[in-house]
Amino acid sequence: MPLIYSNDKTKYLMKKLLITSIIIYLLGLFAKIFHFPASLLVILGTGLFIIYSLIFVGKGIKEKTALSFALLSSSVFLIYILARIFYWTTFPILGISLYLIIGFGFGILSFINVKSYRLPNLWGVITMTLLFLCSIFMLNISSDRIYYFFNMRDLENNSSGHLEYDMEHWDRYSWFLYLKGNYNEASKANEIAIKAAMELNAQTEGGFTFYLEKLNERKSKIKSKSWKEYN
């Protein structure tokens, strides 16, 4: 991705910042998929990329408008990915998608108006086109599928060997299934969570009574289709 700085040292530091953000982001994503305790690196990588984007836009939005729009849209899209893989249910996902669509439109218009067909601006248009398509694709992926993907080893095996971990994950999975309208599957996931909670309650002599009651309450809400929020 070409830079716009005449100062070689600044150009070098910007390039290093971009490469570092990408490497950290990918390492965090790998950790998230394989359950390593370093998934928060995804947030750090996103933060570094946003810093890079803001610096680039501040220096080059007039000369490389389309590429600047692409970087801003990429930053927003990475935040959107964070919201999905960390299940920030109150995050304005539709608003993010709307921004990507608007950003795509403005980027294309700026590219046409400036009539600058140099490689950086072409890359900007290509990037925004891909982000636009990815945002549409991501909107069609429900939260239960994302949750299943990142926790599939434990969910497929029914047990991770840690009852509390199983209880929490099956409980959360039942919520996502419920949101999708898969009430039978949500009920089955809830039953597995209840089973884990009952075993924990027996092992701790009533230490998980509160959680067991909450899970049974959710069981009733799934049956009556009245589960409004996850708390």
Tally of DSSP β-strands: 0
Shape: elongated
The ordered H/E elements are HHHHHHHHH
DSSP strand (E) fraction? under 5%
Instruction: Return Rg in Å.
Output: 22 Å
- Helix count equals 9
Derived from helix and strand composition plus strand pairing, the structural class reads: mainly alpha
Average per-residue pLDDT, rounded, comes to 80
Oligomer: single chain
Amino- and carboxy-terminal Cα gap: 43 Å
What fraction, in percent, of the residue positions are helical? over 70%
Main sheet, how many strands, which sense, barrel?
A: none
Residue windows where pLDDT falls under 50 for at least 5 positions:
1-5
What does this structure look like?
With about 230 residues, the protein is mainly alpha-helical. Helices cover about 75% and strands about 0% of the residues. It has 9 helices and no strands. The longest helix is centred in the first third of the chain and has 26 residues. It is elongated and about 70 Å long. The N terminus is likely disordered.
Provide a short characterization of the protein structure.
This protein is mainly alpha-helical. Helices cover 77% and strands 0% of the residues.
List the helices and strands and how they pair.
Elements: H1 8-33, H2 41-60, H3 65-85, H4 93-114, H5 119-139, H6 143-156, H7 163-180, H8 183-203, H9 209-224
Helix pairs in contact: 1-2, 2-3, 3-4, 3-5, 4-5, 6-7, 7-8, 8-9
